[in-house]
Design goal:
The structure is a single chain. This protein is mainly β and 682 residues long. It has one domain: TonB-dependent receptor, beta-barrel domain (Maltoporin, Chain A), CATH 2.40.170. The protein has 6 helices and 39 strands. The strands form 6 sheets. It has a 22-stranded antiparallel barrel. InterPro entries: Beta-barrel_TonB, Beta-barrel_TonB_sf, Plug_dom, Plug_dom_sf, TonB-dep_rcpt-like.
């Protein structure tokens, strides 16, 4: 009922504005399959059809149509992408094509985002309102992007100025229920407010924005003060400034994140309660510059400094006196600090119409300190890389690459090679084949972490080696434009990845009470994917299928375990626009198949399984005049909350014996309002 009151209020706010016919984004969707330009992994921006990589994109229009409050909602229905929730820490980690987040490189405008450990918690700390588009490459891109890019790369490309004589103001409000819980504009529910301002002329641009995300948590079946999903409050601020001439463009960007994850505790027998806060402060400074010296030579540079801290505060409140004091105990108070300096410079030279070459240098320095860190360690990575795109024939592109490495702490692989090829079989069919060697440096926390509390004893391992992988990928793509408003694209792909020195949790054989990090012998993933997209007039439809196998190391000690456990996945999107009414309706569906596995319990191999489930969202967007859009919809239509698992043990640091895995807080309803004013002086 409270949500209904807010809906009436927001509808009343826009009720006096007359509807007008507007050109919807779907009007141009039919051209995007051909004309779309990508930058990730490229020597220079170019058509997605000409890239040697299989690049998947999520456009600004697609992001806006989701009417989401965070990036995870947008990625969640992508093929091969899934998320795991840690309700203890209030964080979420990504999985891409069968590999966890530690093997996925997260970039913002081509610059790596630093995380405090192997979990990609930074994905939930990116302002979705600042995103222009998302580009995803599956498989290793380690020659260009270095460590962590084993499973693939997710490049978040932010909105940038068009350098027109313009001034724009953007504002957004989104209100969403959390299950059956909601309170208007604060506390229970999801509440997102955003405002952004940009100004530019032909040479200069300046912009800034502020966003607040408030999640009130969710009680679920818990009693007392304890919650199943912890409340989270975020402030995200950003600013940017740019300067452009005919031959160069330089942009500075600043991002700040303040996050408070609050864990309320139940009343105790001694008449008090204990609450915990996880406080994050993240400052990101980045500078990108591009020079086009002449028609053949261009130079790019990127420099960033990231300062990240996470503070754990535990407080005891006395119910009789109201006194609040810091709670004493191992791991209850902590401040961890992380700093990362990154520099990359590349030069691209066009030798002739058949050969383009890129050379680059990269430096990354990371250091950390804290009560749970052994000392104040620093790791420095230095790399030089070389790559060429060779066109021996009009229908063939061959791109070999080498990356030379040096690490200050361990013996990094001296050379990382890759070979990507693209063959244009005819006007409709393209074939991409690739081999790449990938690697992942041990994270600082994997090397130097020390954590002891009532439930965990975890130690880092300074003797860890770098992971490395061999990856083979192949994609056959079909694209046919039957007429200007009717086209179809199909992509059939397969991959095989073998990882050596794979880093994972393990029980210390000398002390079963201690969990540590070790290099296991190997890990493998393999699978096939099928993606289909069809645009016909006002209809956009997509259907995808994947079948991914994950390696079972138990198969090395027993014939009872299969070498791979296979999981199917299906996703579908459907968008229909009504240009006459400035409206569209969007349906998103994803099926996660049963995930079998094996575990070793008391010297016996047992089969396990995580049950299948489905997720679906629906969104309706309606333009009110040319600069106001109202959105409404339902997320998690099938009300999936927990899924059953038959696993009884785990070596994960935050895992216990489990019977269910948390996926969501249930079905939710949302209503959003977007406002954008553009003023052009010329």
């Amino acid at each position: 009922m409270k949500f209904l009151y807010s809906a009436i209020l927001m509808t009343f706010f826009t009720g006096g504005i007359c509807a007008a016919q507007t050109k919807h984004a779907s009007d141009t969707a039919n051209n995007k399959l051909i004309d779309e330009v990508v930058v990730t992994g490229q020597f220079k921006p170019q058509s997605i059809q000409n890239s040697v990589y299989k690049v998947r994109t999520i456009s600004r229009e697609a992001i806006e149509n989701r009417s989401a409050s965070n990036l995870l909602t947008v990625l969640n229905t992508e093929l091969g992408v899934s998320f795991a929730n840690d309700l203890t820490l209030g964080e979420t980690n990504i999985e891409l094509m069968g590999m966890s987040g530690r093997s996925v490189k997260i970039l913002i405008d081509g610059i790596p985002v630093f995380d405090r450990d192997a979990t990609r918690q930074s994905l939930s700390q990116i302002d979705i309102n600042s995103i222009e588009r998302i580009e995803i490459i599956e498989g290793p891109v380690s020659v260009m992007y270095g460590t962590d890019a084993l499973a693939g790369v997710v490049n978040i490309i932010t909105k940038s100025s068009t350098y027109n004589e313009s001034f724009s103001v953007r504002a957004r409000i989104l209100e969403e229920t959390v299950g059956n819980e909601y309170s208007p504009f604060a506390n229970e529910g999801v509440h997102n407010e955003y405002v952004g301002v940009d100004w530019s002329n032909q040479n200069w641009s300046v912009g800034g924005s502020a966003s607040r995300n408030n999640f009130g948590g969710w009680k679920g079946s818990n009693t007392g003060r304890a919650l199943a999903w912890q409340p989270k409050d975020q402030w995200l601020l950003s600013g940017n400034a740019g300067y452009r001439t005919a031959k160069q463009k330089t942009t500075y960007r600043f991002d700040y994140v303040n996050e408070d994850i609050y864990t309320p505790g139940n009343y105790t027998e001694v008449n008090n309660f204990i609450d915990k806060h996880y406080l994050t402060n993240r400052h990101n400074h980045s500078l990108n510059t591009d020079w086009s010296l002449n028609e053949k030579l261009s130079i790019n540079g990127a420099l960033s400094y990231q300062d990240y801290s996470r503070k754990t505060t535990t407080e005891t409140t006395d119910l009789e006196t109201g006194e609040v004091s810091l709670t004493v105990g191992d791991g209850l108070q902590d401040l961890a600090k992380f700093n990362a300096l990154f520099f990359r410079s590349t030069a691209q030279y066009k030798l002739n119409n058949y050969v383009n070459t890129q050379v680059g240098l990269e430096l990354q320095n990371e250091n950390t300190s804290g009560d749970r860190i052994n000392g104040s360690p620093t790791i420095t990575n230095f790399a030089a890389f070389l790559s060429s795109e060779i066109k021996p024939l009009s229908w063939a592109i061959i791109r070999p690459g080498l990356r030379f490495l040096h690490n200050s702490v361990y013996d990094a692989p001296p050379v990382i090679p890759s070979l990507n090829t693209k063959f244009k079989l005819n006007e409709q069919f393209d074939l991409r084949l690739s081999y790449a060697r990938g690697f992942r440096s041990p994270a600082l926390r994997e090397l130097y972490f020390e954590f002891v509390d009532a439930n965990h004893t975890i130690y880092g391992n300074e003797n860890l080696k770098a992971e490395h992988s061999d990856s083979f990928n192949g994609y056959l793509s079909y694209l046919n434009t039957f007429e200007s408003n009717n086209n179809l694209s199909i992509s059939l792909g397969g991959f095989y990845n073998r990882y050596d020195n794979f880093i994972d949790y393990a029980i210390d054989p000398n002390n079963p009470a201690i969990t540590t990090y070790v290099n296991i012998n190997n890990f493998k993933t393999t699978g096939v994917t099928l993606e289909n997209k069809w645009n016909y007039k006002n209809l956009q439809a997509g259907l995808g299928f994947s079948y991914i196998g994950r390696y079972n190391d138990e198969s090395e000690i027993s014939d009872a375990a299969n070498e791979f456990s296979w999981t199917p996945e299906i996703n579908s999107t459907l968008l229909y626009s009504f240009p006459k009414y400035g409206a569209n309706i969007n349906l998103y569906y994803k099926f996660y198949g049963k995930r079998p596995g094996f575990e070793l319990v008391e010297d016996e191999i047992r089969a396990t399984a995580i049950e299948s489930f489905s997720n679906a969202d629906i969104t309706i967007n309606k333009k009110i005049k040319s600069n106001i859009t109202i959105s409404a919809g339902v997320r998690n239509i099938f009300n999936t909350i927990n899924i059953n698992s038959t696993a009884t043990t785990s070596t994960d640091a935050h895992a216990t014996s489990i019977s269910s895995i948390p996926m969501s807080y249930g079905r939710s309803f949302f209503l959003g309002l977007n406002y954008q004013l553009n003023t052009y002086t010329k």
